[in-house]
Amino acid sequence: MTEAAADLTRNQALVYGALEKTGTPMSAYTILDELRDDGFRAPLQVYRALDKLVEQGLVHRLESLNAFVACRHASCHRGGFIAFAICDTCGQVSEFSDDALSRRLSGWAGKHSFKPSKTTIEIRGLCAGCSNA
User: pLDDT (tens digit, 9 = 90+) per residue, 10-39?
Assistant: First the structure.
């Protein structure tokens, strides 16, 4: 658990723990179902915790799946560039960064006087295991 994870509220820690345990993308409602025995009763409890976890860089929202994953790349929030490869068959998500792509995106933004606040790229396809099956 990271230093930031040590300072979480009870609800944030439970949501983060559920995402860490599964290792796969989870919707807020799936998280709610997972945590009902821990006292979660309303989606708002999950969404509030997720908002803070995303803000702290411990969790990422996968827009194309409308789901969340625990961060697996410790330094991703420092550079502001995050990329995900998502397998359409098994649901495996690989988080990565690429310095060359990050430089190109930064160069484009500078050239066009664009100030990005966040960059997330999602690549959908088949992982090695599913493409060989």
Answer: 999 999 999 999 989 999 999 999 999 999
Comparing CA positions, the residue from 89, 9, 90 lying closest to residue 53 is 9
Contact 65, 23 (CB under 8 A): no
Q: CA 126 to CA 19: how far, in whole Å?
A: 22
Separation of alpha carbons 39 and 46, rounded Å? 11
* Domains along the chain with CATH numbers: 3-70 (1.10.10.10), 76-126 (3.30.1490.190)
Q: Residue 68 corresponds to which tokens in the numbers above?
A: 């969340």
pLDDT digits (tens, 9 = 90+) for 77-114: 555 678 999 999 999 999 988 888 889 999 999 999 99
CA dihedral 41, 32, 117, 87 (to 10 degrees): -170
Find, among 69, 80, 66, 65, the residue nearest to 120 by Cα.
Answer: 80
